[in-house]
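Record format v2
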Amino acid sequence: MAGEYAICKLRELPDGHHRVVRVGGRELGVFNIRGSFHALPNLCPHQRGPLCEGGVSGTIDYGPHTDFKLAWIWEGEVVTCPWHSLEFHIPTGRCIAFDDIRLRTYEVRVVGDELRVVI
Amino acid sequence: MSTDMAPVGRTAKRRETLAELFVVDADVHVHEDPAELAEYADPPWDVALREIATVDERYLDLPGMSPRAEYRVPFPGGSNRRQIVTSAREMREGLDELHVDQAVLFPDHLLSLAMVRDPAFATSLARAYNRWLHERWCSEESSLKGALVVAPQNPVAGAHDIRAYAGDRRFACVYLPGSGLKTLYGNELYDPVYEAAAEAGLPVVIHSVETVYPAFPFQLEQFRTSLAVHALAHPLSMIANLVNMLETGVPVRHPELRIGFMEAGTAWIPFIANRLDKEYIERRREVPLLQERPSTTMRRFYYGTQPIEEPERRADLVSMFDLFDGENCAMFASDWPHHDFDHPQHFLGLPFSPEARRKIMGLNAAAFFGLDMPR
C-alpha cells in the first residue's frame, strides 16, 4: 500500500547503523549514513538473498577515474549481500558490479522524533 | 550473473516447488573443530590437535591443520553471514530452509588435507575425522550422509578405513581431496583405494578447493586475486585429475567404481571432453585401455553443479548441460554454508525440462550415492 510508514524512533537508528523493517507489505533496509537516511529493498536481485542483513562498509575502486591508483571509497555507504557478497551503493541503489542493475530507493523522512519511509 | 531473471510464476504451466521435489544436495560442509577431533584421534596426534585448537582460525584457514597459505590483503566488508556449521542439528535446520531432503557431508579444513606435509598426521587426521563424522553427524541425522575422507598421503591406510566401514550406510562415498595434491588420482598408488571403494559399493568423489601454494595446481601464486585463483584452482584440479585417471585407465581397471567430481562448476566438462576426443583420434595407441572416445567414458562420471555458472542468457546453461549429457550425470550441490553456495531455488528457476530438473536435483545423486529414493 502506498503511503508513509513509521519505522522507528530517530534515536533507535544512530549514525552508522542500519536495520531491516517490514512496512506496507515490504521488507526494507533502512540506513543512517552520517545523519542522512536511506532505504532499499531487503532483496538481492541475484539469488534473492536478504541483502540488507549484510554488513556496511566502504569498497575498493581502481581505474582511469582514480588515476589508476587503488582507492578506498564510499566509506559507510556500501551494503554487501550476506549470501554471495554482491555490493550495492546505498544512497543510489546502484549495483557496483553490474551498473545496469539499480535497486529502488525509498525516501526516508524525519517527522518529529520519528523516522518514516515513503512507499 | 543472469540479467534476464524472470519472476517465479510467470510460466503458464505451474513448476514443481522445492517442497514437492526430491532434493539431494551432493555437497555441504561440516566444520571440524580440532578440539573435538582430538577426542577421536590416536595418540600422540590428539595432543597436537588440542594445541592446534588454541590458535584462532579464519575461514578455511587454520595454522597447523589447514595449510592454506592465505596471503591476501584484508579490507573491511564482504559477507557477514556465518559460513560454518558446527552440529548435525544446525545443518538439518539450515537444509530445511533450503528444502533439501538429503545431503552428503564434506569437511571444511580437511579440504586442504592433501597439503598436510606429515603423512602420519594426515592419516591420523583423516581417521579421527571419519570417526567424529560418523558419531557426531551421520548417527544424529539419518538424512545426512558422510563422505569418508582418505588421506592421499597414505592410500593403503585409506583402503583399510574404507573396509572398516564397508556396509555402513551412514557413509555415502569416499572423498578424495583434489587440490594441493602431490600425486594425481590416475596413479596406480591409489589402486588400493579404488579396489576397497568398489568392494564396499562406495563411489569416490574428488572435491577441489582454492589452493595457492606450493602444490598443484602450480603457478597460482602468480595471481593477485581470489577472482583468478578461485576461477582456476577448482577446474584445473578437476581437469588434471580426470585426464590423468583417463590416461591410466582408472575407469577401465576398476569398472565397478563410480567416480564423481565436485565443486568446479560444469563449464570445464564439455571443454576437456572435446579436447580429449580430438587427441584420441591421433593418439589412441597411447591409451589402448580406453577403447572408446574419452567423452563417452566421461558420461559415466558424475559431476556436482556448484558453483553453477551464471551466463547472461540463462538458456545457455541448459545448452551447456546438453553438451555433456548433464541431465543424466549432473548432481545439484549447494556447497552450503560456504561463501559461494547455490540456493536450490536458483536452480529451480533455470529453464530445464521438468524431467531434467527432477534428475539433476535429486534422482541422479540418489543413484550415484545409493541413497534411498523418495516414497
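Chain A has no helices and ten strands.
The interface with chain B takes residues 45-49, 53-55, 57-60, 72, 78, 80-87, 97-98, 100-101 of chain A (CB under 8 Å).
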